User: Fold this.
Amino acid sequence: MTASRYNTGMLFGYHVSSAGGLYRAFAEAEAIGCTVMQIFVGSPQVWHTPELSDAAAARFKERWKISPVRQVLVHSAYLPNPASHKATLRGFSLKKMKEEMKVAYRIGATGYNFHCGSNKHSNGEGVRLATETLNRLAELTDEKWPVQLIIENDAGAGNRIGDTIKELGQIWRGLKHKARFGFCLDTCHLFVSGIDVRTPKDIRALLREFDQRIGLKHLKFIHANDTKFDLGSKKDRHELIGKGYIGRQGFINLFHTTRLKHLPFIMETPYTGESKVDIDSRSKEIKLVRRLAK
Assistant:
């Protein structure tokens, strides 16, 4: 298979399954038509991270060489909470994230994506503790596994940290190893946290604030997800592109924003769990997205 089949300029892809071996993710990504993909490196719901053998790391890299997939983003498990008010949980989170980063680095991943978590006491404490945890994470991995750390915005429910550009900016200011970090903006999370992204004016306002507080050069990925719930609802439920409240025109406007065209767009839209059904559905969706981007 050659890259020319998907050579459309902009990079589009999905979070795909790596069950049975990380290298197997390429087959699903290619069946869909991805030029970028996102994976877990283990079960997202357990603290244990599987060891990656030298042979498995080499097999992943060899498989990547013949794939149209140009970038690979590793997403953290669901459990880490860098902002937790509990020191023990922050410690577990640091260990888990470090283990996953090691795998991400060994397979040559473009980045390691994660959320900042939540804090029971206050957002201010959460921002401070998340920043401390991330500084320690960068310090511990700077020489061994210096994969880029990608901070993702949150939807804002349940004392979540980083659901506003202001909070992301506060974390950014406190980071000591800024060269190690980048950001991913999730369109569903933005919308349900109260940040409208449907019109060119909305998008310009968002990017202007991000540029002022952080700098647009540090925006590395977009999670392109429509939403089942309305603006400001704080409900993180993804919907198929064009079927939710952001809508088809909203994504046309996003894809045609000049300052975003160079970024990879990764979709995390709903799936059934049945491989053939989901591959067919996502193949149609990625074709739609490419049409919208034209």
